[in-house]
Amino acid sequence: MDIIKRHNVTISGSGEQVMVFVHGFGCDQRMWRLVAPAFEDQYRVVLLDLVGAGRSDLSAYDPARYASLEAHAQDVVQVLEALDAREVILVGHSVSAMIGALATIAAPERFAALVMVAPSPYYLNEAGYSGGFEPADIDELLAAMDTNYLGWSGEMAPVIMGHNDRPELAGELYQSFCATDPRIARHFARATFLSDHRADMARVPTPTLVLQVTHDALVPVAVGAFLQHQLPESQLVLLDTFGHCPHLSAPHPTTDAIRHYLRQRQL
Fold first, then answer.
1. Does residue 94 carry a catalytic annotation?
2. Is 0.85 topped by the overall pTM?
3. Is 146 a residue of the active site?
4. Are 115 and 261 in contact, with CB atoms under 8 Å apart?
5. How far apart are CA 260 and CA 214, in angstroms?
6. 96 is an active site residue
7. In a structure prediction context, what are the per-residue pLDDT tens digits for the chain, which is 267 residues long?
8. What domains lie within the chain, and their CATH numbers?
């Protein structure tokens, strides 16, 4: 199967410059449906499913290869190579913000800008760094996924989404979690929550917008400040909203922030 089919790549829009959107854990490209279309008048919008997610080729998921995020970054670069895309604007949510960063490091000639939506390079608290979780918290989270993935999904979806007044949002995230192969989800969760990409941030060669949510149960605001300090050329924008998925819960502010940044960069 070729790389385009493997990742269920879909392309829309009328522009020449490519803008690729990469989804977060337990999700797929449909999660960008409230944001990506806003850019179709100016860009060639590319959506994909990471291997193991959505309508990607699940048979391509090799646990040994995907034990780290670097393999997913290589996949993204391969998609762009197949499309012969350069000067790409990559928008990555959550773990895919780090996948996007690794992709820019691996193939800097392909990218013009990176947009990180609710990113975190490391989820654990350490001296001088507030990642949001203690080691016991992550151990408990992963153990709960191993024991009862569907139960974990039902408990975590409202926490991650952060809008108790809009239960349909948590419901959609729950359904997305449930549609993911539990074995792949558990494996990807370890690659996500146990990775430490703080040292990689200084190597990101691409101008970067960090979109940080002010009330995010997974990622403290301090992480945004850390990223702004570590990334060589970055801008931090705080989205005054709740939850870890602003592209679903607050699509208009998210879209406006991205559009404003791209205009500033004349992209």
1. yes
2. yes
3. no
4. yes
5. 19
6. no
7. 599 999 999 999 989 999 999 999 999 999 999 999 999 999 999 999 999 999 999 999 999 999 999 999 999 999 999 999 999 999 999 999 999 999 999 999 999 999 999 999 999 999 999 999 999 999 999 999 999 999 999 999 999 999 988 999 999 999 999 999 999 999 999 999 999 999 999 999 999 999 999 999 999 999 999 999 999 999 999 999 999 999 999 999 999 999 999 999 999
8. 3-264 (3.40.50.1820)
What's the token pair of residue 145?
A: 């996924």
Of the residues 23, 216, 234, 247, which is catalytic?
216
And the tokens for 118? 């609710």
